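Quick one:
INPUT:
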């Protein structure tokens, strides 16, 4: 019983900074986080229009499972492939930090996701991203990110 209480206390302490940060965000930070959540939902729904609507033409991103940084054409190609070969069943985002300076936003967060592949095999994974957005013409657009699934244990 004592061990369970210790784990619960540690879990609560880990969540407090995240919850406190999200509760004290400015309106602009809330706007950026809403875009983050919308992008993940559109991706889960296999709606590839998020790429044209939310991604800057000069995007440079580097997912942990790729050999190097990639561009927008590569993003479209790999998202089409992934949509044909896997389905996201559930997902949850955990904001860690966000800073906005002028027209640049840097967002860091963790996630949990449950997926099913084309063989109907299911897996859960956790991971992290650092996203960089630029505000152009009154809209926030993804211009860079790095991250992905944590290494399998």
């Amino acid at each position: 019983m004592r061990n369970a209480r210790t784990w619960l206390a540690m879990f609560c302490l880990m969540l407090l900074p995240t919850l406190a940060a999200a509760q004290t965000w400015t309106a602009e930070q809330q706007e950026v986080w809403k875009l983050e959540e919308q992008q993940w939902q559109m991706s889960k729904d296999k709606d590839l229009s998020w790429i044209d609507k939310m991604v800057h033409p000069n995007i440079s991103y580097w997912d942990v499972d790729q050999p190097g940084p990639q561009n927008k054409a590569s993003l479209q190609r790999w998202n089409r492939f992934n949509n044909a070969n896997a389905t996201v069943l559930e997902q949850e985002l955990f904001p860690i930090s966000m800073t906005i300076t002028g027209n640049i936003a840097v967002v860091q967060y963790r996630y949990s996701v449950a997926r099913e592949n084309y063989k109907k095999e299911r897996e859960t994974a956790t991971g992290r991203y650092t996203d960089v957005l630029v505000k152009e013409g009154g809209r926030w657009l993804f211009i860079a990110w790095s991250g992905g699934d944590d290494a399998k244990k």
